[in-house]
Design brief:
heterodimer, A: alpha/beta, four-stranded parallel sheet, B: alpha+beta, 16-stranded antiparallel barrel, elongated
Chain lengths: 309, 459
């Protein structure tokens, strides 16, 4: 019996030790791959990071799968896009996570939208007749590298508060990310500079921050209203408007059907560009900086093909 | 709050400054004309009236200041609430702080209100009274998420066995949901039936932060028996419920009772596994407890596994046990299993999905005149073939709970159109062969519409 107790306590000790070393890494869950990528830049090997949604998935319509509950259950930190982007699927997952650390308002719940630049904040009365409007502004804000930097700062602060011993490490990683992002931004700005003020059309309102940052002018949307599928009358109006303003570029997210955009393209001579709104949207988009590399390369090539200036 | 307190002396000084010269100007002519006691009394009365008038003036000024302060305070709170917490951004990238998520009405809310004139004469209070709660418009932020869902049903065709009205506002559901405190949230679902009766379909507290990973619900609940029993009408992929539910699991009301539900994840390295244990008072469409000690019990185990990123399997086993009210000591025991297969490709998630589901229930009642053992099942499929269109089918088979020799069978074909996430129109052709030998062919149609907070999509 004594021998058994000894063995048991030894086993307990080993488990305790292994648990404590496992706990040294902060377990982070992000709702999208963009947040996960930025968190990886800051956290390095001191965190375990996983994303719930995939980059080629419409982040409004993710399914609240029970397998996500298991991930949230173990998380020390949850990073969300906020602005009601995940309202259709995240709240019940958080409730069922049985994890007090990541409940809204708790220390382990980081809403990345609180410190960023938000566009399209609705003013005046809003109703559902306007479609799927986001009352707290457009949630696709990560498509501006400046906001990526602000998200990185928020994550750096959160991680440093969680693990003060690693604060210097996180600060150094942030500085490195900041430097690489600033360098990349310079080249993106140069690449996009000739097309300042270029008129484009997008499928959903996913690109206001991107357009704002790189000087594009979005004159219309394939969706008549956010979240409402294209209608024949709206499509006709859009075609006329595109012809009138000579719009040659149309941005479409990878999760939308290309039938209507292609029909519009045939009629207007515009080019359909399937841009990636998120990290992981295409295989080669492995991180946040590559997301802009990919999109800007694709966009510039398309613009050159259409001969637009 | 400190703001308002600190400003009070200022207000007093201001009001005295206003009141003193005014009172003096009034009192001089009154004193000059006073020669008799009567005149004195009249003067005193005039003074009293004057004092009263000044008091009211002061009250108005105070109220106006109070209003403006409340408005400023709420604006301040809103700004503080959204102030960026990060270090200053790197140069060259101006940070525009996010605007407050909630717009603050410019006027704020009054902290006091006037008592209507006439109340004083009737023995009521006079002047102004403070308003408790909701002192500032911002406190509305804490109002729960409110939504109303309408479920309108129509039926064409003959059914003498289970006739429904041609047109009915089948159910109006009001949901009120909010976080209670850092440890819990509360969800209320009030329903008004076609007869106008108000009921609490569900109303429960969920404790989200209990130690040991126990997720606990307390209140009136749809019990975790199987799949259909947990679903509200507007979530069902049909306009009705399967014969199995109608015959064996209490129909639309189901096992819905006051009780406590505790569930826990069972850690393992293979799949999602969750066990739920529930205790109920024992009064529902299935159970009738004769006494306080005759509780009913429900247990459920759910397993879930992702097969690929777009397909998954979901399965469960349930038991329910309690008194059925047929006699002093008669009970009902239900055993159920359910399985669901889902397919939803991530890239085309808004255009295409498929769901196949089956449930089986075995019911065993200890009646005074025997022990009927009944079986019921359904198999159902739903396929989304365009962004707004769903087609579905269901096969039904179920014995009657009290007489297993009587078996009803049926089948349905469905077509659903979703104008948006917030409304849908559904048609269902239903053929039911009742055990008595009667066959009913019906066409059922449904309008579902919801306003208010955007609730999460159930999985």
């Amino acid at each position: 019996m004594r021998r058994f107790t000894g063995l048991a306590s030894l086993a307990l000790l080993v488990t305790a030790l292994s648990v404590s070393t496992a706990q040294a890494k902060i377990i982070v869950v992000a709702t999208t791959e963009d947040l996960a990528s930025i968190a990886r830049e800051i956290g390095g090997d001191r965190i375990d990071i996983e994303s719930l949604a995939r980059g080629y998935q419409d982040p409004h319509f993710v399914e609240a799968k029970p397998s996500f509950i298991l991930k949230l259950n173990k998380a020390d930190l949850l990073i969300v896009i906020g602005r009601e982007l995940e309202i259709g699927w995240l709240p019940p997952l958080i409730t069922q996570s049985r994890n007090p650390k990541i409940q809204p308002g708790a220390d382990g719940h980081l809403d990345a939208s609180l410190t960023v630049k938000i566009l399209e904040l609705p003013t005046g009365q809003i109703t559902r007749a306007m479609g799927d409007v986001h009352p707290q502004g457009n949630p696709h804000y990560w498509l501006d590298p400046g906001n990526g930097r602000r998200i990185a700062q928020a994550i750096q602060q959160k991680l440093s508060a969680r693990s003060p011993a690693d604060a210097a490490y996180f600060a150094q990683r942030y500085a490195d990310f900041d430097r690489r992002l600033a360098e990349a931004e310079k080249s993106w700005t140069v690449e996009m500079a000739p097309y300042k003020g270029l008129k484009i059309v997008t499928y959903h309102r996913s690109w206001p921050n991107f357009a704002d940052r790189f000087g594009l002018d979005v004159i219309g949307y394939v969706e008549p209203r956010p979240g409402i599928p294209p209608s024949p009358s709206h499509t006709l109006e859009l075609i006329q408007e595109m012809k009138r303003q000579n719009v040659k570029v149309m941005l479409v997210e990878p999760y939308f059907d290309l039938k209507t955009p292609n029909a519009i393209a045939r009629d207007t001579g515009a080019k359909v560009v399937v841009m990636a709104p998120s990290v992981g949207g295409e295989k080669e988009i492995a991180d946040y900086i590559k997301l802009f590399d990919y999109d800007i390369n694709l966009l510039v090539t398309a613009i050159k093909q259409t001969g637009a200036k | 709050m400190w703001l308002r307190v600190r400003c009070f002396p200022v207000l007093v000084v201001v009001s005295i400054g206003v009141a003193v010269p005014a009172a003096r100007a009034q009192s001089v002519p009154a004193a000059a004309g006073a020669t008799s006691a009567q005149a004195d009394q009249a003067a005193a009365q005039a003074l009293r009236a004057e004092v009263e008038r000044l008091r009211q003036e002061f009250e108005t000024v105070r109220r106006q200041y109070g209003d403006r302060l409340a408005a400023l305070e709420s604006r301040l709170t809103a700004l503080e609430g959204t102030r960026p917490q990060s270090a200053p951004p790197p140069a060259g990238e101006p940070v525009q702080p996010a605007a407050p998520p909630v717009s603050v009405p410019a006027g704020g809310a009054p902290t006091t209100v006037d008592v209507p004139s006439g109340a004083a004469g009737a023995g009521g209070p006079e002047g102004s009274l403070p308003v408790y709660g909701n002192a500032s418009a911002l406190s509305k932020v804490f109002n729960p998420d409110i939504a109303v869902i309408g479920d309108f049903l129509g039926a064409v065709g003959r059914n003498t066995q289970a006739p429904g009205p041609a047109l009915e506002m089948h159910e109006t559901e009001l949901s009120l949901q909010a976080v209670v405190d850092p440890y819990a949230r509360a969800d209320f679902f009030l329903t008004v039936g076609q007869d106008g009766s108000l009921g609490v379909e569900e109303g429960f507290l969920t404790l989200t932060s209990l130690p040991g990973g126990l997720l606990t619900k307390v209140g009136k609940l749809h019990s975790a028996f199987g799949k259909v029993n947990t679903m509200h009408n507007h979530i069902l992929p049909w306009t009705d419920r399967p014969l199995m539910t109608e015959n064996l699991v209490g129909g639309e009301d189901g096992i819905s009772d006051a009780g406590i539900s505790v569930s826990r994840l069972i850690p393992n390295k293979w799949l999602f596994l969750e066990a739920t244990g529930e205790v109920y008072r024992g009064q529902s469409a299935v159970f009738h407890a004769p006494g306080r000690g005759d509780l009913s019990y429900v247990g459920h185990v759910r397993g879930y596994q992702d097969v690929t990123e777009g397909t998954n399997l979901d399965f469960g086993a349930s038991v329910a046990y309690g008194h059925n009210g047929a006699g002093a000591d008669t009970t009902t025991r239900l055993v159920g299993i359910d399985a669901t297969f889902r397919y939803r490709p991530l890239r085309r998630a808004i255009y295409k999905r498929f769901l196949a589901r089956t449930e089986m229930v075995w019911s065993r009642r200890s009646e005074l005149s025997g022990r009927p053992q009944s079986f019921g099942t359904y198999v159902s499929g739903e396929y989304q073939f365009a962004r707004r269109w769903f087609a579905g089918a269901r096969l039904d088979y179920s014995d009657r709970a009290t007489d297993s020799r009587l078996t009803d069978k049926g089948g349905s074909l469905l077509l659903t159109y979703w104008p948006s996430e917030f409304s849908q129109v559904r048609g269902q052709f239903r053929r039911t062969q009742y055990a008595e030998g009667y066959t009913a062919n019906e066409f059922l149609f449904q309008f579902l519409f919801s306003i208010g907070a955007h609730g999460a999509h159930p999985f």
